[in-house]
Design brief:
Elements (H helix, E strand, L loop, with lengths): L10 H21 L12 H7 L4 H17 L4 H11 L5 H15 L7 H8 L4 H17 L1 H11 L5 H10 L1 H6 L1 H9 L7 H13 L6 H9 L5 H17 L7 H11 L6
Length: 267
């Protein structure tokens, strides 16, 4: 393990750390015996990397596990079971690292990770649950179909915090493909929990500023029945256009487009 912050090292030293991390984790996985009906002993090497105080040490670890999974077909089943077992670790940083490692796998192979995500969604610690948001965002870009199936399954969960996480998790996919996530958001248009409602509005704003996206968002909002939420969402859209200098439209242009094309604004 390194004794100083990852980005305090030189570029060559960082690459050396990345290579050593992957080699050490690979050897630990190869040497791991999967117990049958016995208590697991997770390799100390993996625990040390996964629990590191430096975010980038943990990132190197989960990226390494992802690469090992794809480079070593014979280890894939073992890695899947290992990551699922790590989700039981008492240290939240370790469980969080497991979720991010699973997301590296899920970008191509979602089937092996979804059961583990089900458990992580119910984790007691917010950092692990938030890792699921990040995982869904990354997977939604690379492997959208199974990700959206997973999202739809939990979209109306009884736990509002899970609903919030799920909505936030589809944000990145929505930035490039708003037409895929808007029908999901529409199903929650009468959400009563403020924290969930706010993230719905936030996501609508975030999926509106790229080329061709505002047109799709406004067209979809014309079919929504909750006019109050629609009006809040339009304010968020304009706010996002003011905040993002790289938005395809100016704030005034976005505001004018909404006024011209959103039916409820013309009543």
């Amino acid at each position: 393990m390194i004794k100083m912050g990852f980005y305090n090292l030189s570029k060559d030293e960082r690459q050396k750390v990345v290579n050593e991390t992957e080699e050490n984790i690979l050897n630990a996985i190869i040497d791991l015996d999967i117990p049958e009906n016995k208590k697991w002993i997770i390799p100390e090497t993996i625990i040390n990397y996964a629990s590191g105080s430096d975010t980038y040490v943990r990132k190197n670890a989960y990226m390494a596990i992802g690469r090992i999974y794809w480079d070593h077909e014979e280890l894939r089943l073992k890695i899947g079971r290992l990551l699922d077992e790590i989700l039981k670790d008492p240290e939240e940083k370790v469980r969080q690292t497991s979720v991010y490692a699973l997301s590296e796998i899920g970008k191509k192979d979602a089937d092996i990770v979804m059961n583990s995500f089900e458990k992580a969604l119910k984790d007691d610690h917010h950092s692990v649950r938030n890792a699921v948001i990040g995982a869904l965002k990354q997977m939604g870009q690379k492997n959208p179909l199974p990700t959206i199936v997973f999202v739809r399954k939990h979209l109306k969960d009884d736990d509002p915090e899970i609903r919030r996480q799920i909505v936030h998790g589809i944000e990145l996919r929505g930035r490039t493909h708003p037409e895929e996530v808007l029908p999901l958001l529409k199903e929650l248009q009468y959400e009563e929990v403020k924290r969930v409602r706010n993230i719905i509005i936030h996501v609508i704003g975030q999926i509106s500023y790229k080329k061709g996206c505002l047109e799709k968002v406004v067209a979809a909002l014309n079919d929504w029945e909750n006019i109050e939420l629609v009006c809040e969402a339009t304010k968020e859209i304009v706010k996002v256009h003011k905040s993002y200098k790289f938005a395809v439209r100016s704030p005034k242009d976005a505001e004018n487009y909404i006024k011209e094309h959103l039916i409820c604004c013309n009543k």
